[in-house]
Structures are given as C-alpha cells and as structure tokens.
Design brief:
The protein is of the alpha/beta class. The chain has 15 helices and 14 strands. α3 packs parallel to α4 and α5 runs parallel beside α7. The chain is globular.
Length: 433
Amino acid sequence: MAQAKYLGLIVAVILVAAAAALLLTHHPAQPAQTTTTSMQHVKTIHVPVGVLVDLSGPTSGVGRDYAKGVEAGLKYFNEKGVYTRDGVRVVFDYWVRDYAYNPTRAETFYKEFRDKYGVWAIIGWGTADTEQLADSAARDHIAYFSASYSAKLVVKPYNFFPAPDYSTQACAAMKWIASRTRNARLVLLYDHNVAYSRSPIPAIKAYAPRLGIKIVGDVHLPLRATEADAEKAMREAMTKNPDYYWCGNTIRSCALAVKAAAKLGAKGMFVINVWGFDERFPKLAGRGAYGRAAGVSPFRYPEMAEDTPGYKVLTAAMKAAGYTRKDIGSMLRFEQGFLNVWLLVQAIERLNSTTLLKGKGEAIKEALESSCHGKPFTFGGLAPPARYCPGRHLPYTSVWIILLGKDGKLHAEGPINVTGFDCVKATLQSSGG
C-alpha cells in the first residue's frame, strides 16, 4: 500500500513537471536566458524581434531585397556576436511576417509580436502601417525601426530610422533643382491615395516656392501603374510644360513614367524619391532615361562605396546569409534593410546587461537618444553619422543625388544639406501633426 502511494507521488510529480514544460513552450514571450551555475550572472540575453516586410504586395519590388538585408543582418550579427557594454552576449530571436503592404494585416502581426513573442523591437516597412502603429509602439515600449522615413514618425518617441525623413529628402532635391535651373517649373507625379507617396508633398509645396521653383501640376500616378496609366499621367503632365518632374512612387511606376515620357517626346528631367530609383533603374527605364533621371539617396550606393569599411561589413553579411550577388536584385535595398539592424545592434552595444534586461525596448530607445549630445551612430561610410534627440528623431539632413548620365552610368552629386527651413515641421503643420 505504501509502495502504491509512493508510485502515485512519483507519477504526480512527473505530470506536474510535464505540464510546466508544456506551459513554457507556449509562452515564447518570455525569452530564454542562459545563466551561470550560480544563477547570478546572465551569460546570454535573447532579444525578441519582430520583422514586418512586403514580399507579395504593391511595394514588393523594393521590399524583397530589403527583407533579405534585414534577415542577413540578424543572422550575421548572431553569428559574429553582439555584446553589451559589460560583455554579455546578445542573440536575436526573430519572426518574419509578410503583410503584403496591408495596414490591417500589419496590425494583426504587431499584436502577435507583442502578445505571443513579447518583442522588444520591430524592424518594419511601410508608411501607412508604421504611422498607424507608432502610438501603440510607444505605449508598449517597443523600439520600432522602419523602412518608412515619414516626417510624422520623427516626433514619435519609439520610432527610428538611419536616414532623413522623406520631407527633408525631398527638400534637398528641390535645392538641387534650384541650383541647376532658375525659376524651374515642376510637376508632381505620385499616387494621391498612398500615404508613402503623399508623405513629402506638403514640404515640397512649402519649400519649392522659396527657392523660386513654380509647381505647375499635381498629377496622379498609381503606385501599381500599368504602361497605359503611365502614359495617361504623362500626357496630363506634359500640358504643364515642366522643366522637372518629381516622381514619388516606388521604382516600377517611376520607371514606367520615364519610359512613357521618352515615348511621347516629353521634355524635362525626372527627380525620383529614394524608393523609386536604384541601380536597376537604367535597365527598367531604358535608354530614353539616360541623362534625364536622378534619384535621391540618403545612403552611399554600395557600388560607389566599395572602399569603405561599411561595404565590407555589408558584403560579409550577404555571404554569411548564403547569398551571392546574383541573389539580390538591388544591393541598395539590401543595404537599407541591413542598416536598420545595424542601428539596433549599435544601440544594444551601448547598454549594460542589467539595463537591457530591465528596460528592454525602453532601454534601446534611451540608448539611441544618448547620441543626441554624445557619440553618434556610424555605419562605416555607408551613411552619415546619426544622432537622435528626444522628441525629434531626425538623424541628419543631407542626401546624395544619383544622376543617370547620358553614358548610362550612375554618378553621385552632393551631399546636399538642407538648412534654414524645417521640412518636418512643414509636413506636420499641413496634416495637423
């Protein structure tokens, strides 16, 4: 009888242990921490990170290589080793979700990241979804690194990116136009229904007239434009007789607009935002674009930065992730994804392990803002030094203009720095921000 009770007690203990183990596997929001045998000092900190990307939606043409850059960065730094200021190893646990550029799906995945995995940081993507989630990220103390450089995010306490905002970038483009052509006539070409495409328009409309640029047209060009859509938009734009066109969409529709301009015999030069122009543009737009298209970039193009330490880190990450150059359509997009991860890594390296474990996303935010009056974040020459001040996460205000020459090659001009006008403020005032 005593033996039976003893066996029953053993079975009960086993069942309780099994139930506890099952409960733990269903709570990945509590990241595992490997400790010493004395259980006093953490040896490894697992930092949970959510990744939102567009692999199948309307911006996937630039989103796929960005996503590869993000994943390559996370894999590379996990293998290379990331350490807190007091020498504790940090490992990134991450979950990637394709939300297809749908803000509703992005919100669903955000809740999954927060509630199921307890993420401390998110590497995100688009403008509409990132703006929509910014206040939630602040309430939940999740550091948010996006591929959207919207001016509205500059004043959000938990949003960061290693670039000037879209409005500041566009203002730099206006400054470049004014330096080339006095009293230039400008037509705006962009999708009137997409937050990303609309984002810098208020700043352009406020700043361009100060430079003597006359905006003579505001034409709708769908983000998912067909050849017919592009020709229709260009026929309308041509009637305004502009010297320049601002194209504010992603690369496919901007390339179609330039092709349509060549086909229709439209005069004028195209200046294209950061996501609408990269090293693929000459092939996509054709020879008719030679000498009449230029792109805005806050970053050094990889092919123009092969002598920099940052380029060596970038290509090492590419190889570590198992990619060859043929696997990546645009190294610039790959670089943009990688830089978001590199910024997160540098923030963590400024923290000690106790602060990171206690503060999580809030600690990462404070590490980033420590650069305001302290040491800036640097990217090995791929981008200018970045500083983030509380209440204003505008890391720098300069861009390069990448000109597609008549020789069919890309040439960098700049950097061009915006001073004397607050492009972020112009955008926020126009939208009631």
